[in-house]
Design brief:
The chain has helices at about 10-20, 25-35, 50-65, and strands at about 35-45, 50, 70-75, 80, 85-95, 100-110, 110-120. The chain is of the alpha+beta class and about 120 residues long. A hairpin with a 2-residue loop joins strand 4 and strand 5 (about 85-95).
Amino acid sequence: MSDAVTDYDHLLRSNLNRVFNERDPAKREAAIAELFVETPVMFEPTDIVQGRDAISQVAGQLLQKFGADFAFVPIATAVGHHGLARLAWQAGPRGGPVAVTGADVAEIVDGRIARLWVLLDPPT
């Protein structure tokens, strides 16, 4: 898919909302199947996660660890070109203080996320 038809903002916001904010495992897995290539890789600060199932498990564990009110919220429009995109976000309890900020950087292949880097900003 060319840049002219890839909506980087929609793709990365969908990942944030439908994968990393989704508490229902079946809905999260369906979103991952739609948004990610068959064998994606996610690079976290402390781990490399391979495969759709593993990405779903990581998202579910994060949501369980931080509680029912925890959410990731985009703070800017995603930008990208030539198969690379970035979306800045913040996370914390809904309506509460921001606990962490960062960005997702993704390699996009044929309109889907092939590799995803989760970059955390240093604490302030």
